[in-house]
Amino acid sequence: MTRPLDEHLSQHTGPEWLTAKRKQSFDLFDSLEVPHSGVESWKYTQVEVDFSQLRPHPKREEVADISALPSSVRERLSSTDVGAFLVLDGPDVVYRTELPAELTEKGVIFTDLRSAVEQYPDKVQQYLYSVVPAEVPDDTTIAAPGTTPSKSPDPSEGKFSALAAALWTNGAFVYVPRGVEVELPLGSFRVMSEAGTYTATRTLVVAEDNARVTFIDEQDSDALPGTYAIGAVELVVKDGAQLRYVSIQNWGKGVTHIQRQRGDVGKDATLNSLVVTMGATLSRTEMQSYLRGQGSDSEMLALYFANEDQHFDHYTLQHHAAPNAHSDLLYKGVSDDQSVGVFSGMIKVDLGAQKTDAYQKHRTLMLSSEAQNFSVPQLEINANDVKCSHGSTTGPVDQEQLFFLRSRGIRQELAEKMLVTAFLEDVLGRVPLQSVVKYIEGIIAKKVGAA
Question: What are the BP-aspect GO terms (predicted)?
Answer without folding.
Answer: iron-sulfur cluster assembly
